[in-house]
Amino acid sequence: MPGNETKPSSETPTHIALPAPTMWPMVTAFGITLLVTGLVTNLAVSVVGLVVALVGAVGWWRDVLPADRHEHVPVVPPSERAQPVQVAAGRVEHLKLGQAGHRVRVPAEIHPYSSGLKAGIAGGAVMAVLALGYGLIRHGSLWYPINLLSAAAVPTLATATTEQLRAFSSTGLAVGIFAHGVVSLLVGFVYAVMVPMFPRRGWLWAGIVLPLFWTGLFYGTSKFINPALAGRVDWPWFVVCQIAFGMVTGYVVARSERIETRQTWPLAARIGIESQEERE
Description:
- The chain is 58% helix and 5% strand.
- It has 12 helices and 4 strands; from the N terminus they run βααββααααααααβαα.
- The strands form 2 sheets. The chain has a two-stranded antiparallel sheet. Strands 3-4 form a two-stranded antiparallel sheet.
- Helix 1 (24-37) runs antiparallel to helix 2.
C-alpha cells in the first residue's frame, strides 16, 4: 500500500564496501603464460605454469566464494570534497596564423639554400688558405695538408712518409679538392638551416659552438676514418681552421636575405593549387 512505502534515507554513508584487493588474478595469468610458453620451450616450463595457474585459481576462488571479500573505504564528507567548477559564460577568440607574431613553427623566416652554397664556398676558401699556410710554415710545402687530407681515400698516401707527403701528387690534389669542396658545401647547407635557429648574433654561435663540436667528433673518429691524418694532425691549428670556417660561413648566411616560410599560407597555396599572389 502507498502508506507503507519506505522512504530512502537521506543520510550520507560513512563507508563504501569495495572488492578487496587480491593478487590471485595476476598469479593465475602468470601461470597461464608459463603454460603456453612451455609449448615452444620445454615441458618443465608448462608443468610449472600449470601448478602456478591452479594455485592462483584456487586462491581467486576462495576470495569470492562462499562470500565476496570486501574492504570498507571511508567516504569524504561533503564539506571536505572539491567544489564544482563554476562555469563563466564568455567568448573565446582564436588566434590566427601569423596574427600578432604567432608562429606554428620556429623559425618563421629562413635563409635561402643558395646562401648556404655561397657560405660553404667562402668558408671552404678561408679554411683552404689557412691549411696551405700551415703546410708552408710548418713543413715547407703546400702539398702536405692536401695529401694528408686525401690519405683517407688514397692508400699510397695513407702509408706515405713525411717527405712523400710534402711532394706533389696529382691524385692527392684531385681527391683533396673534391673532398674539401663537397664537405664545405654540405656544411654550408647545414648552416643555412641552423643559423636562423640561434639567438641574436647566431653566426658567432655557429662560428664557435659547431666547429668545436665537429672537432671533438672528428677527434674521436679520426683513428678509424683517416689514421694517417689522426697521427699527424696539429690539433690547435685544426681548431683555428674550423673556427675560421664556421665564422665565415655563419656570417655569410646571417647576412643573406630572409624568406618567410609558408606556414602562414592557406593550404591551397601551400600545395600549389593557387598562388599566394592570386589570393592577395
